[in-house]
Amino acid sequence: MSASDSIAPVSGEGSSRWRRGYALLNQLGPVVGLIVVFALFAILRPKTFLRPDNLQIILLQTTVFVTAALGATVIIISGGIDLSVGSNIALCAVVIARLVQMGIPPLPAALIGISSSVACGFIIGVLVTGLELSPFIVTLGMWGAIRGLAKLLSDSTEVAPPLTWLNNILRQLPDDQKWMIFPVGVWLMFLLTLFVSGILHYTRFGRHVFAIGSNEQTARLCGVRVRWTKLLIYLFAGLFAGLAGLMHFSHTTIGDATSTNGYELNIIAAVVIGGTSLVGGQGGVKGTLTGSLIMSVVANGCTKVDMPNPYQEIVTGGIIVLAVVLDRFRHRKT
Amino acid sequence: MNPESNAGKPRLRMVGVTKRFGATVALAGVDFSVNAGEVVALVGENGAGKSTLMKILAGAYQPDEGNMWLGDEPYAPRHPLEARRRGVAMIYQELALAPHLTVMENILLGMEPTRGPLINWQEMRAIASDAMTQLGRPDIPPNAILSTLPIAQQQLVEIARAVAVGCRVLVLDEPTSSLAQADIKHLFDLVRRLKARGLAIIYISHFLDEVREISDRLTVLRDGRSVGEGLTAQTPTARIISMMVGRDVNDLYPRSLRTAGEAILEVTNLAGRSKPRDASLTLHKGEILGIAGLVGAGRTELLRCIFGLDAVRGGKVKVSHFAGDGPSSPPRRWKQGMGMISEDRKIEGLALNLSIADNMTLTKMPVLVNVHRQTAEAREWIKRLGVRCRSVKQPIGDLSGGNQQKVAIARLLHHDVDVLLLDEPTRGIDVGSKAQIYHLIDELARGGKAVLMVSSYLPELLGVCDRIAVMCKGVLGPAVPVSQTNEHQIMLQATGAMEAA
Question: Would you call A8 and B348 a contact, using CB atoms and an 8 Å cutoff?
C-alpha cells in the first residue's frame, strides 16, 4: 500500500502553522519576558538596578529559588504538584542552623539538614503512591506540618549560629575571590540545572517522568513502574528542596521557620512561566531557570522603584495568575 | 412540517466550500446537499475533510470560500450556538453530556424553561418526555441520572436534545462506534423514524455496511474534494471503497499460508474481579486467534487480566517457557515478550503530547537514552509501516487515528514481542490504514508471532483470524477454525442463544 497518492494534511485539520507558533511561543516566550522586565527596570532605574552588585544580589536570590524549582519542575512534568516546598526549605535551614549552633561540624550538619528534606519527600511520595492520594492534598497537609516542625525545632525564633564556611556558599564574593565571577552556590545552581536537564532528556527515569505526566495509564500499559517512579520523583524533589535550604541558610546565615513563606507559589509560578505545563507531560528546567530569573528581577526591580510592599505582593500575585493563564493558552491545543 | 413544500429543494445546500489552514487545503470547493426526509452518508478516509466540513456546518469553523443555504435562507453560522439555534444539530462520536445530571436536565441544558428566576421543572419534564416519546422511548425516565443509563440510551438523550429544540438537520458522526449490535439496530430504527418526520440527516461512518443499510444517498470525500456521489442502492461497495482511497482495494483481508507452531500462551480458567468469569485458551506461534462477543461480554477485561493490568482472582496465564504463577504485571509481561494495544489508544496507549519516537520506544528504554539511536530506530519503523508524519519528534497527537495506531503497533514490533494482544486494533481508523494493519498482522503471524485479537466487527475477525472463540457474559467458549463458523453462528453464541436452544 503506498501512501504517496494522498495529500491529506498530516494533522487532520492542518493546524501546523498554529502549532509552530505555539512551539515558538513556548521556547522563546520566557526569554523574551525576561528581557522585557529586565529592560523595563534598567530604563526606570539605570543607576541602581544595573549596578553589578545589585545584579549579583538578584542572582543570589534566584539561586535558592531555582534549586528548589528544579525538583518542582520534575514533579509538575509528572503531573503532580508540591505545595510544601517552601516549608521544606525552611525546615532544612532550621535543622542546619540548630546543629551548627549545637557545635556540630558544618558538613554533617548540612547533610543531616538535607536528609530531613529528603525524608519529607519520602513521606509525600509514600502517601501519594501508596495510598493513591492526590499530591495537591498531601502536600497541602505537609505544607503546614513541615512548617510546624520547623517552628518546633527553632522555638519559633530565628536561630543564629556562628558563621562557618557554609555561609560562603552563597554570599557576595570578597575582593580577593572576584576571579570566580559568581559564588560557589551560583555555579552549583547552573550545574544542577544542567544535571536535571540531562536526567530529564537522556535517562529512562526522565522519559518515564514525561510519560507519566502525559498519560499515566499509557505509561502503566507500557510497563513503566509508575509508583516506583513517582516515589523517586518526590525523593528527588526533597533532595533539591534540601539543597535549596542549605543555600538559603548560607545566604541568610540564620534558620528562620517563617522566612520562606509563600515560596511554593513563586516556585510554581516560575516553573509555569518557564513553559512547564500544569497539566503534565511538557516542560523542562531551562525554562524554569528563566522563569525564576523573571520572578527575581521583578521582585528586585519593584524594590528599586520604591514600590511599597503591598503593591509588590499584588504584582507578584498578578504574575502568578498570568502564568496560569499563559499555561492554559499555551497548552490548550493538546 | 409539510414535505411537499420542500419538494425538489434541498433542506441544506453547501456550494464550493473551501477551507485552508495555512498552506494546507482541507476543503477544496466541496458541494454537498441533503433533502428533508433523506439520509445522506458522508464517507471518506480520515483526513479527507469530513470533520472539517461538519465543523463548518456546525459553526465551529468559518469557510474561506463558498456558500451555504438552509432551505431558502443563506446560512453562515458564526459559532456553534447560532448553528443550533438555526436547527443544525451534531451528535459526535464522544457524547457531550453531563453524566451527573438527569436525563431532562441534559436534554434542556442551556435552555432550561424558567418561571421568573426559577427553573420550571414541570415544563422541563414535559418537554423531555415529549422528546423521548418522539424517539419512541417513553420508557426512559426523565429524572434518571444520566450515568446510570447504558451508553446507547445516553446517546438517545443526546439525540433527544437535538429533537427538543426542533432541529431540522441532524448530523450523526460515527454514532455506532461504541454501540453493541442490538443497539445499532435500535439506532437505525430511530434514524428511519426521524427521517419519516422530515428531518434531513447526515450520517458519517467508516462502516460501509451501515452506510448501505441506512442511507439513501452518499457523498464521498477524498483529499478535501467531493469525488463521488450517488444513490446508495446503485453504488457497489467496491466502487465506494475505490472512490475513498482513490484506488482499488483488493483483498482487504489478506491471508497468507501460515502454519501454527508450538503453544506460546496458555490461559487456564482465568477469572478477574467481575469479568472474565472463566476463560481458557491456547495460542500458538504463527496463529491469529480472534475473540468475538458483545460489548460488555468481558473481552477487554480478558486481555487486561492476561496482561496484568487488571487484578486476577483465579486461574493461570503461562507465557512461552515462563512459569504461569506469580503475580502478573505489565513490566513482567513485556519482559516475557508480550505486548498489548488497548481499545482506546487516547486514554490508554499513547502519550499524546510526547513525540512519536518516545511513544514508540517507551517500553524498551535503556537507562541512558541515546537520542540519536532512538530517533534512527523510530525513523526506521515509520518507514516500514508507512506512518505519515513530518518528523519523529512531532507530538503523536498531531497524527490521524490510523497513523497513531500504526505507531502503537510499531511499539510492539520495536519491543520485538512474540505475543500480541490487540484490542479493537482498527477502531476509528480509515479503510486505507485498516488494510495496511491487516496486512501487517498477517505478515507478523507468517513470521511466527502469535496474535490474540478482540474485535466487535465480525467481517474483520472472520477475514483475519485463523480461529475464533466467542465470549458471552464473561465465559469464553472454545476456539473454532474460521472455516467452521460464520457471522450467524457467532452471533448466536455471543447473545447466549446457543445455551437456550
Answer: no
Instruction: Decide: B180 and B296 in contact? Cβ < 8 Å.
Output: yes
Interface of A with B in 57-96 (CB under 8 A): none
How many independent structural domains does chain A possess? 1
Record: contact B349-A218, CB cut-off 8 A = yes
Which superfamily does B3-245 belong to?
P-loop containing nucleotide triphosphate hydrolases (3.40.50.300)
CA distance A17 to B24: 9
Query: What are the Cα distances from residue B219, in Å, to B6, B43, B229?
Result: 21, 6, 4
Residue A37, C-alpha cell as written in the block: 522586565
* Cβ-based contacts of B247 with chain A (< 8 Å): 5
| DSSP single-letter state for residue B34 | E
| Domain encompassing residue A108 | 67-329
On chain B, the residues whose CB falls within 8 A of the CB of A19 are: 398
Task: Give a yes or no: residue A13 inside a domain.
Answer: no
B375/B391 Cα distance (integer angstroms): 9
pLDDT of chain A along its 334 residues, tens only?
333 333 333 333 344 566 666 666 666 778 888 999 899 999 988 888 888 888 888 998 899 999 999 999 999 999 999 999 999 999 999 999 999 999 999 999 999 999 999 999 999 999 999 998 999 999 999 999 999 999 999 998 999 999 889 888 888 777 787 787 888 999 999 999 999 999 999 999 999 999 999 999 999 999 999 999 999 999 999 999 999 999 999 999 999 999 888 899 889 999 998 889 888 898 899 999 999 999 999 988 998 888 898 998 898 888 888 888 877 777 664 4
Q: Quick check: B2 pLDDT over 80?
A: no
Per DSSP, the three-state class of B240 is helix
Of the residues B19, B20, B21, the best mutation for testing chain A's interface (the one with the most A CB atoms within 10 Å of its CB) is B21
Chain B interface mutation, best of A4, A7, A11, highest count of B Cβ atoms under 10 Å: A11
- CB A315 within 8 Å of CB A307: yes
DSSP string, B108-176: TTT---EETTEE-HHHHHHHHHHHHHHTT-TTS-TTSBGGGS-HHHHHHHHHHHHHHTT-SEEEEESTT
The chain A residue lying nearest B250, using CA atoms, is A1
Q: What is the CATH number of the domain that holds A78?
A: 1.10.3470
Q: Which CATH class is domain B263-337+417-500?
A: alpha beta
Task: Write out the DSSP string of B389-430.
Answer: -S-TTSBGGGS-HHHHHHHHHHHHHHHT-SEEEEESTTTT--
Spans of all domains in chain B = 3-245, 263-337+417-500, 354-409
pLDDT given at position A1: 34
Whole-angstrom distance, CA of residue B433 vs CA of residue B65: 31
pLDDT at B497: 63
Cβ atoms of B279 and B270 within 8 Å: the answer is yes
B109-128: average pLDDT: 87
| Inter-residue contact B198 to B163 (CB < 8 Å) | no
Model confidence pLDDT, tens digit, residues B30-55: 999 999 999 999 988 766 788 889 99
CA–CA dist A330, A208 (Å, integer):
23
This prediction has a pTM of: 0.76
Check if the beta carbon of residue B195 is closer than 8 Å to that of residue B201.
yes
Q: Which residues of A touch B351 (CB under 8 A)?
A: 210-211, 214-215, 218-219, 281
Question: Rounded mean pLDDT of B259-275?
Answer: 91
Give chain B's radius of gyration (CA, Å).
24
pLDDT above 80 (res B411): yes
- What is the C-alpha to C-alpha distance for residues B493 and B219, in angstroms, rounded to an integer? 37
Report CA B357 to chain centroid distance, whole Å.
25
Whether residue A287 contacts residue A74, with contact meaning beta carbons closer than 8 Å, is answered with: no
